[in-house]
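Is nicotinamide-adenine-dinucleotide placement plausible here? Inputs below.
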Amino acid sequence: MSRAAAAFPVTHPTGAYTVTVGSDLLPNLRQIAGIKGDIALVSDSNVAPLHAKKIGETAVTITIPAGEKHKTLDSIRGIYDQLLAAGIDRKGTIVALGGGVIGDMAGFAAATYLRGIPFVQCPTSLLAMVDASVGGKTGVDRPQGKNLVGAFKQPIAVLVDISTLQTLPKEELASGMAEVIKHTLLDGRFTLPAPITDWQALVSGAIQVKRDVVQEDPFEQGRRATLNLGHTFGHAIEQVSGYAVRHGEGVAIGLVLAANLSARLGVCPPALQSEIETILSAHHLPTRIPADLPAADLYKAMWTDKKKAAGKLRFILLRSIGDAFITGDGIIIEETAVMQTLNALKTKA
Ligand SMILES: NC(=O)c1ccc[n+]([C@@H]2O[C@H](COP(=O)([O-])OP(=O)(O)OC[C@H]3O[C@@H](n4cnc5c(N)ncnc54)[C@H](O)[C@@H]3O)[C@@H](O)[C@H]2O)c1
Ligand SMILES: [Zn+2]
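Reply from A.M.:
I modeled the complex. Tokens:
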């Protein structure tokens, strides 16, 4: 693959940066991102051994054990200590090489170390490429919940080297596809090729959907919340399953539930649900709630989701493909409607 890389400008409240999507970009990181000083590379224990060498010389390489359970303030403390030990100053640049966990943590470290130093994202999971690396949200989890501590930190550049997808485990690829499919539902201009052979085009299309949304609403005061389509249901499924259901799988089922609820409330045609199911199934994603997750428990779990506002559950509903909206004061979602949807989409035992 020696095809030309694609470049997408992203503007944000304090400036602009470019997302570059292409093959074998990592060896040209300094040039593409315009880095002159020290590089402090932050990666995880899976990705570093596979891809860190491509970046060439760094002042320090910080490797964090892989996994969401390490997305903590303790890991951030470790990053600060290693940056200090390596003498990284404000002329240095933190480079995140990994999935969304690494991007969120390296970004948070870059937002706070010496009150902020430059930051570059090199996402290596499909999810991080199409979702986490664009938009400037960074942070860590707390025992009380995910992403409860963080900051907005815009990168100076995002390098999406799609060659790194070759080593991504299949389940992680499927998980990222759930977010890609979500983006096709949010923006009717972006459609999936079938079969998928052109990953550069797929990733580029999905990134542009996210870019357009965050540019319009950088601080999530309105439309940006539509990126949570399927996530109120999805998070509840993940949580009640004790995280046996992965994030992307929860989101996939959540997309079906969102369509079912939308149709039940009369905002979209009933056929939309099966249309979405067909797409998800074609990408090996689930479309039904596992039989062992009680609807009442799922409903309860939704109330702990941070998207609840003013004592009301808020949902992202679909009028049609490309037309998602957030339920607000105008539309009250009764518990019975949500319970009917949860019961309708349970796997038959
Ligand atoms: N900041 C945002 O806007 C935003 C948006 C969505 C999600 N997120 C966050 O992103 C995280 C999820 O991201 P994720 O799914 O990338 O998780 P992750 O970072 O844990 O990566 C998933 C797994 O894939 C491995 N991996 C990544 N790239 C690889 C590669 N090329 N080859 C081999 N293995 C590879 C990782 O080591 C990990 O084991 C969550 O913490 C979520 O909160 C943030
Ligand atoms: Zn998600």
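Short version: DSSP finds twelve helices and eleven strands in the chain.
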